[in-house]
Design goal:
Rossmann fold; 5-stranded parallel sheet; 10% strand; alpha/beta; 14 helices; single chain
């Protein structure tokens, strides 16, 4: 890729460029990231797709800039899910880093490698920045790719990690503009809370889903389902029988409160016992 092409992409994801953030904060995660960074190890933030990892890390960088603990130009955020990064291999890291140094004439204090699991060999570059350049490195990725036993080996133990989950119900209420810190508030808003609880139980706690109207919720959730089952599980485990994987995933979603043995599920879905066991393990990882 050409340097000007790379720089155009970086401009869209960095505070020294065009990036603007007006999303709601999740204070507990921001506090946790701040504590992990203090360890001076590589910080690995994992979690299911669309749980809010990238937003939380971007907010963390923004707060550092606002608090004047770092200059905007001394931070670098690279989003590897940007489709314009069409050449995702180890050499692209050096191209991005060299482009940043040349264009910004700065020395990065914080580098964020966002959704880095898309690039083979990312751990070598993360270790290079951390050990040779003494940079604070934050890595984010989906749970199915950044499994503890995998990245512990890749990073040789030089990391601390945190998992980002979809919104808790308390967070969901906050995103809806409702504070229930006191018993008086809970009683006063009890009917509204019950209504929001029904919505939360039906649609779950993905941040974007929380903030859109009813018509959009199912559409977004279907796209998330496709991303997680097809992009994460199928590609990572090289599943050939995608239709059966999808069938099993939909069965689990429709029967969350029902206890079933693998053998029983095999008979219900007409899928081999081996496939039920393997696919169930894959889905639990995702």
């Amino acid at each position: 890729m050409e340097k000007n092409e790379i720089f155009e992409i970086l401009l869209d994801w960095n505070y020294w460029g065009n990036y603007k953030d007006n999303s709601k904060e999740r204070p507990e995660y921001l506090r946790k990231i701040r504590e992990l960074v203090k360890t001076k190890e590589i910080v690995v933030v994992k979690g299911v797709r669309r749980s809010g990892k990238s937003t939380i890390i971007a907010q963390f960088i923004r707060k550092l800039i606002e608090e004047k603990k770092v200059r905007a130009e001394d931070t670098l955020i690279v989003n590897f899910e940007d489709p314009r990064f069409y050449e995702l291999n180890l050499s692209v890291f050096n191209q991005i880093y060299d482009t940043y140094l040349e264009k910004m004439q700065a020395n990065p204090a914080y580098v964020v490698l966002d959704e880095v699991q898309e690039v083979d060999g990312w751990e070598k570059f993360a270790r290079f920045l951390h050990e040779a350049k003494k940079v604070n490195v934050i890595v984010t990725g989906s749970s199915s790719k950044l499994l503890s036993e995998e990245y512990s080996t890749l990073l040789s133990g030089r990391h601390v990690d945190s998992e980002v989950l979809p919104l808790s119900f308390r967070e969901y209420l906050s995103f809806k503009g409702l504070s229930v810190e006191s018993e008086v508030e809970k009683i006063k808003e009890r009917y509204r809370i019950k209504g929001i609880l029904r919505e939360y139980m039906e649609y779950g706690g993905f941040p974007k889903v929380c903030l859109v109207d009813q018509r959009e919720k199912r559409t977004i959730l279907q796209s998330y389902f496709n991303d997680i089952v097809i992009k994460d599980v199928q590609r990572r485990f090289n599943v050939k029988e995608v239709d059966k994987l999808e069938q099993l995933a939909k069965y689990y979603l429709a029967n969350t409160s029902t206890l079933r043995s693998f053998n029983k599920i095999k008979n219900i879905l007409n899928i081999s016992l081996d496939s039920v066991e393997r696919f169930s393990k894959y889905l639990s990882i995702a």
